Amino acid sequence: MEIYIVHKKLTVGPHKGKRCFTLSRGPRRNIASGNLLEGIENATTLSFADGEMIFRSLVEVVTEKVSQGHSVDLGPLGTIKPTIKATGVENRKDCNAKTITNRGVQFIARTELNERLKNMSLRVVNSKVRNKQ
Amino acid sequence: MALNNYLTYEVKSRKIFGRDRWIATLRLANRCSFDEIAKEVEARTSCQSSEVEGFITALAHEIEKYLHMGENVEIEGLGTFYPKMTTKVVDNVEEATIKNCISSITVGFRPHTKLKNAIKNAGLKEYTKAKLKSNDKEE
Known about the structure:
Oligomer: heterodimer
Order of helices and strands of chain A: EEEHHEEEHE
Shape of chain A: flat
């Protein structure tokens, strides 16, 4: 993966306003489902149309299961589950659905996938950035 | 959205900033295994569950391939997977090396609006423990 040295101004924390250097991912593309399906077509015996059909049904099933409160195991990819955020209240009788402030989705990647990503090769592209200070 | 789409929450007592508080926590339903998902997809398509399992495995490999290239992978209706980098800042450009600045790289996920809306539109139900009837009590 190509990474870039960036010179940025900190916007939060005790050093707010200070200019520092850090590394960041460069300009990135959004890979759409079509690209994935082409790769899957080459790797398996499934046709593009079959892949598209499975893809659509898979998204449908995952959405349905997650919105029913299930955590969904996606095999080598990881697990998707719903989450909630709520505010604590002093009295038991005041604790109801209204105290739930946000609902979201959490994805937990499989350990092996995270491990492989941790060991990926990285390359600093713009190593000639000068200190402007 | 189907009527049985609801999330169950349980009210628990927790210590929040040293104070005793009551808070709603999510009570997850049964975990859907990889096999169950494959069978569910099989029922909706003309493909075998083994083919679905093969598809998901190939999909995971494809996603991983693009993550290694530093790209975002967008799955319509589900969300976007991306390589998430946690970095540190340094004062000088000479110190800005991979060893000094990158503390971790993991898989990040941003859920798609459709998935978020499905969860937001799901109902909420409080979990209550089933009470024993007076006849069922042991004497």
